[in-house]
Amino acid sequence: MATQWVLVVVAVMAVLFAGGAAGGQLSTRYYDGKCPNVQSIVRAGMAQAVAAEPRMGASILRMFFHDCFVNGCDASILLDDTANFTGEKNAGPNANSVRGYEVIDAIKTQVEASCNATVSCADILALAARDAVNLLGGPTWTMQLGRRDALTASQSAANGNLPGPGSDLATLVTMFGNKGLSPRDMTALSGAHTLGQARCATFRSRIFGDGNVDAAFAALRQQACPQSGGDSTLAPIDVQTPDAFDNAYYANLVKKQGLFHSDQELFNGGSQDALVRKYAGNAGMFAADFAKAMVRMGALLPAAGTPTEVRLNCRKVN
Ligand code: HEM
């Protein structure tokens, strides 16, 4: 009996240690001695980009999500395709919609000028996404740092790991669960759809014949997104305040005005309805949960033993 307990304790410790080791590679003070100005350089670069075009904040936030969900937050999404290498940029969820690569390049150039070969592209993207949220009126948080850059990227993993706009609730819960993120994390992170734009092709089926859509909202969106043609025409995801990071996204869901089928699945008589109502009525609770979930998503790392580096140019391996 005693031996069994020892085995259980050892097993639990092993699980805790494994979890701790993965997160333990990151530290909030990672660049304190190595590149003390990195946070102000990234903030200034993002402030400039968002001032020039507020949507860029949305685009960089989405880029971070699409990086972290594919083999961890390792800047794999930033690698360009070459004649003999196919990366993630042209995977289905990314092609013709993920944007802002040149913003990360410009920030990386500034960071390299200050601290050569020190700060990973993955950390620059993590800080840029955090600052994007705050610059558009959302919360800020202390970001753990020390991520490293991948030597490769996976188009098939990008196609397989990122949810699509037609996903149902069970699929969303499973796909986030596969990354160690809870349904609550998933519902909070989806609040990122308070920002940005989407192409007609991603929401057409929702505004034509989706049972759970507000009729006036569907009619409004149909004006720019007809039954055929106009696939690339953009519409704001949050019908109320597309350039402000607020909790209007959840109020939209309660009114059946979510733009994607996947958005409305969070408020469709299922397990997330109560939380959606809470976030709709409590901006502070949403902001706090969003920040916590971003830290958890940002702690997704490549599998132990994966070769990594600090890239000099975010678009290619050294
Ligand atoms: C829950 C599952 C999710 C699905 C199914 C989903 C799907 C989509 C789709 C289809 C678009 C429009 C892309 C296009 O126009 O082709 C989009 C845009 C966007 N997504 Fe998501 N997304 C999800 C979660 C997230 C998360 C977790 C974040 C960030 C934390 C995020 C941030 C964004 C942002 C900010 C945009 C607008 C980007 C821009 O304007 O450039 N999404 N999403």
Task: Give a verbal description of the structure.
The protein is mainly α. The chain folds into two domains: 38-162 and 298-309, Peroxidase, domain 1 (Orthogonal Bundle), CATH 1.10.520; 169-296, Peroxidase, domain 2 (Orthogonal Bundle). It has 14 helices and four strands. The strands form two sheets. The chain has a two-stranded antiparallel ribbon. Helix 2 runs antiparallel to helix 4, helix 2 packs across helix 5 (121-135) and helix 13 packs across helix 14 (283-298). The chain starts with a helix and ends in a 9-residue tail after the last strand. Residues 1-23 have low confidence and may be disordered.
Secondary structure elements and pairings:
Blueprint: H1 2-24, H2 38-52, H3 55-68, H4 101-114, H5 121-135, E1 149-150, H6 155-161, H7 169-177, H8 183-189, E2 197-199, H9 200-207, H10 215-222, E3 234-236, H11 248-254, H12 261-264, H13 273-281, H14 283-298, E4 308-309
Antiparallel strand pairs: 1-4, 2-3
Helix pairs in contact: 2-4, 2-5, 3-5, 8-14, 11-13, 13-14
The chain binds protoporphyrin IX containing FE (HEM).
List keywords for this structure.
49% helix, Peroxidase, domain 2, 318 residues, 14 helices, Peroxidase, domain 1, two-stranded antiparallel ribbon, mainly alpha
